[in-house]
């Protein structure tokens, strides 16, 4: 069920009129739905009920403490890529034994902290990282639980910037080289080989690339068993896409059932790292029209949200739906480019959108819960927007709007001569 829908001619977030949120908290602003986060997480957890599994929400998609806390309360695991994400999960009440640590460039201090708190597993991406982890674990006198992230060389059929499972990508260990690296890992005194991991890309809208990758990974698991290396868990990463426009990705249930069919009766715990499919459609970004500027060539609606607030359109030419909060019928629909105040031609949130607009109108950029606020910046010295979470008929400020003082706090002029 969509938690952002029209009622009585205006957009609601759960039980709250979005226009009231704009009145009370200003724009631009990110608005999340607690129920949407919960429903999206449960779709994974329920499809895996009855067999060993761990759904590790990919923190990078939206790392707000309230989001992590809502998911932690449901018993979620977490996929992290930095010690910063680790500390966020811990502060939000996440269970360290349900955390997997991914990422190509883990620092020794990050490994140490993760070992101290007892994360579930490190997803290791290179020989050199194995050596580093073995040394750090040795210093602490512990054994580090390890999975190798393999690169299965499959085409995820997604945007090149968010495809990660091809040979030419920086991620993972070439699957053909994996048996050698597993043998090395198994011989290291401070490592405990537990699993295999792969993540082939993001915003995948069909199951075939996942199944191609899975077939290759299962062949590896079977070959390792013959070499005496037992793999206990299989982490298939994240990557399931969402509907931004007309895409029709499989539901988490269909995607999971397809994978379980291939896994068959192998005794493997299934670990998943969904980010976008839990967070994207649990949020909108609210923005207001400042000016309408029509030229001979284009119609620009200049809005108060910009590329610094949401960079996906500028970075990937990503398309996200932009809808009126209070649709109007007193002016004609026209084609508008929705552009922000930042001094870049690439500062747009949408182009050629058919909308009936007047200055002061509120717009909602949909599917903004993932890779939205987390990728925001202070470019042009703009304060980042607040994050608000709706829960039923209540709205909570889960991150305050930044102030100029927040931005300047860490900067210093040179001392006087
Ligand atoms: C290792 C890893 N796991 C999980 C994710 C989450 O992916 P998504 O948001 O597409 O589910 C990513 C990002 O693509 C990733 O790099
Ligand atoms: N940030 C990207 C996805 C990257 C996925 C992270 N591995 C997006 O907005 O689509």
UniProtKB/TrEMBL annotation:
Pathway of action: Amino-acid biosynthesis; L-lysine biosynthesis via DAP pathway; L-lysine from DL-2,6-diaminopimelate: step 1/1
Keywords of this entry: Amino-acid biosynthesis, Decarboxylase, Lyase, Lysine biosynthesis, Pyridoxal phosphate
Active site residues according to the UniProt entry: 343
Domain Orn/DAP/Arg decarboxylase 2 C-terminal: 30-369
Residue sites binding pyridoxal 5'-phosphate per the record: 239, 273-276, 371
Modification N6-(pyridoxal phosphate)lysine, positions: 60
GO process annotations (BP): lysine biosynthetic process via diaminopimelate
Keyword Nucleus: no
MF terms (GO), sorted A to Z: diaminopimelate decarboxylase activity; pyridoxal phosphate binding
Record bears the keyword Amino-acid biosynthesis: yes
Domain Orn/DAP/Arg decarboxylase 2 N-terminal residues, every copy: 36-280
One Pfam family hit: Orn_Arg_deC_N
Entry EC no(s): 4.1.1.20
Cofactor: pyridoxal 5'-phosphate
Residues binding substrate, per UniProt: 276, 312, 316, 344, 371
Reactions listed under catalytic activity: meso-2,6-diaminopimelate + H(+) = L-lysine + CO2
Function: Specifically catalyzes the decarboxylation of meso-diaminopimelate (meso-DAP) to L-lysine.
PANTHER family: DIAMINOPIMELATE DECARBOXYLASE, GROUP IV DECARBOXYLASE
Family: Belongs to the Orn/Lys/Arg decarboxylase class-II family. LysA subfamily.
Quaternary structure note: Homodimer.
Name the record gives this protein: Diaminopimelate decarboxylase
Species, as recorded: Marinobacter segnicrescens
